[in-house]
Design goal:
alpha/beta; five-stranded mixed sheet; 22 helices; 46% helix; 14% strand
């Protein structure tokens, strides 16, 4: 392994708190992280996509991206299907080797594993992680009538520490295996990517940087000075140039650009259907500019060079529906299609929130939704980062918000999904929903979750407990066999460390209740003992049965665990 790769790997190990892993195992996680990060903008738990070990089919990582979200369960996929009405799927497979060469035999074994994964009948034993991904894949194809634009994409990445020299014989064998996968009729496209040291370095550096896009924006006017705004422009941009703003290097829409939108894409409702018809008709597409209200982008950084504009850390805060329809209909876009565009560059969070609020008021959005989206999230971000260094966490309101900030370990970054799941499990007694029914939990944002009257301490405790448990899984303090019940362990720990009688989430007394739990979590020995106590209660609730994800997803298991804790259900 060359010095640069080793330096990057060492930095990754520190960020992920996996210093104790041997180098080859850490490199597998490193490869998984680099490859998935190229297709997925948000932070994610790399151990959730890692499959390496016995029964891995020769595959070290599997990532399934559905409608722009990295999913690990059938229920999460079904939640996205219910929300969007369709499926847009990419399967990512990773094989990693610390060797400096590209072994033809090992690459063929990698293809064999992917072939087996998509076989109607699997004949080779699979470990639990691969089996879970396999069952998710099967369920996706059961819903093949719901594929949005086309069948799923399949991407295979073979990662080493050497240099790819495009060997003709090996390239021919790879081309043949890619053609074999395509011939199954399961995919719209199959791509094999050999990644040597240079490609790995570039991928890792991309994961550290915020999203930046450059595009032509010649038809624009500079708006007058506005307090809190460094620069702002109003104008029109051609449809093909606008697609550059929306898409990543693989040509997929960046779902993270719409994090500040309350509503996701509503599929082809009457309004979106009208937009689609306008774009499809050569006689009407030129009228798009006067028929559509356009798109508003808020960027943290903006640079202009003549007709070129470069924006970084940007969000589309108005025009989510328009953006998705334009992306879906990109084959119909020509320079005749002009998109009204407003770009606002600001570092002022109050300005950002006011723009989000004003633009979302044009749709049917409640005050609770807007509060949860802006004000509460901002307060939570400040609260989590206000603790001393060892207890400090970082709530990520924007995609890759902390990527360029030195010294922050990835495991201390809490995403919106992690925060909601951990809070629902620990303080709403719904660990089964946290595992696989995230879409259901999202509907409670603004009412039972991220509610205006809630104290912030329970959210910190839930986030810190999530962080501590993941740390103990990685360090061996808690056996990874309990991962299927990770959210049940959070719920059990609250009862063990805080007691059965929990004050209301809006009451002042909840602060003292949370403080008693923090005293346990902040001490490694006490935290390990408490989580292992929780694990013993999980064992009791299982009554000798094998703990599986299917069991942990059920309400029945949650009730059994509460009974074992002496809590009435």
């Amino acid at each position: 392994m060359d010095r640069v790769t080793k330096a990057y790997l060492d930095a990754f190990r520190e960020e992920q708190s996996i210093e104790s892993l041997k180098e080859s195992d850490a490199f597998e996680l490193f490869a998984d992280y680099c490859v998935i990060s190229d297709s997925y903008d948000d932070e994610f738990n790399v151990t959730d996509v890692h499959t390496g070990g016995d029964g891995d089919l020769g595959i070290d990582g599997i990532g399934t991206i559905v409608n722009g979200s990295l999913v690990n369960s059938i229920e999460d996929m079904e939640g996205l299907l219910d929300l969007n009405g369709s499926l847009d799927v990419t399967f990512c497979f990773i094989q990693a080797k610390t060797s400096s060469g590209f072994s033809g035999d090992q690459i063929m074994t990698f293809f064999d594993g992917v072939d087996e994964f998509f076989a109607e009948t699997v004949t080779i034993p699979m470990n639990a992680t691969v089996k879970s991904a396999y069952e998710l894949m099967q369920k996706i194809y059961d819903n093949s009538l719901k594929f949005r634009r086309s069948k799923p994409q399949c991407r295979l990445s073979y990662v080493t520490t050497g240099q790819w020299v495009n060997d003709e014989y090996l390239s021919a064998k790879i081309t043949k295996r890619v053609a074999t996968l395509k011939s199954t009729g399961l995919f719209s496209d199959v791509v094999f990517t050999p990644m040597g040291a240079d490609e790995v370095h570039a991928s890792y550096l991309r994961s550290k940087n915020s999203v930046t896009t450059e595009f032509s924006f010649s038809n624009k006017v500079l708006l007058p000075d506005i307090v809190g705004v460094s620069e702002s422009y109003l104008g029109v941009i051609s449809g093909p140039e606008f697609i550059k703003i929306l898409t990543d290097g693989a040509g997929n829409i960046r779902k993270s650009l719409f994090n500040d939108n309350v509503r996701d894409f509503q599929e082809y409702n009457p309004v979106n259907t009208d937009i689609k018809r306008t774009l499809e008709d050569d006689g009407t597409k030129g009228r798009f500019v006067v028929l559509n209200n356009g798109v508003t982008i808020v960027a943290r950084e903006l640079r202009t060079t003549r007709d070129k504009v470069a924006i970084s850390e940007y969000q589309i805060v108005n025009g989510c529906q328009t953006s998705h329809v334009l992306f879906e209909q990109k084959e119909h876009l020509t320079d005749q299609v002009q998109v009204p565009l407003k770009i606002v560059a600001t570092q002022d969070e109050d300005v950002v929130n006011s723009i989000i609020t004003a633009t979302n008021r044009q749709t049917q959005v409640t005050n609770e939704d807007l509060f949860a989206l802006g004000t509460f999230a901002k307060k939570l971000e400040g609260f989590l980062s206000s603790y001393d260094e060892d207890q400090r966490l970082y709530y990520e309101r924007r995609s890759k918000q902390y990527n360029a900030v030195p010294g922050i370990k990835k495991v201390r970054i809490i995403t919106k999904s992690q925060q909601i799941r951990a809070f629902a499990a620990m303080f709403l007694d719904e660990p089964h929903r946290s595992i696989s029914y995230y879409a259901d939990l999202q509907t409670q944002v603004g009412t039972r979750i991220f509610y205006d009257g809630h104290k912030l301490e329970p959210y910190y405790v839930a986030a810190y407990a999530h962080f501590k448990l993941e740390f103990l899984f990685r360090s061996g303090g808690v056996p990874v066999a309990y991962k299927p019940a990770r959210y049940h362990l959070l719920m059990a720990l609250r009862y063990i460390a805080g007691g059965v009688d929990m004050p209301a989430l809006s009451a002042n007394k909840i602060e003292k209740y949370c403080s008693s739990i923090c005293e346990v979590l902040w001490d490694n020995a006490q935290a390990t003992e408490a989580f292992m106590h929780a694990a013993s209660v999980v064992n009791e609730a299982m009554e000798g049965s094998l703990l599986t994800l299917d069991i942990a997803k059920t309400r029945t298991f949650t009730d059994s665990l509460k009974q074992s804790l002496g809590v009435s259900t």
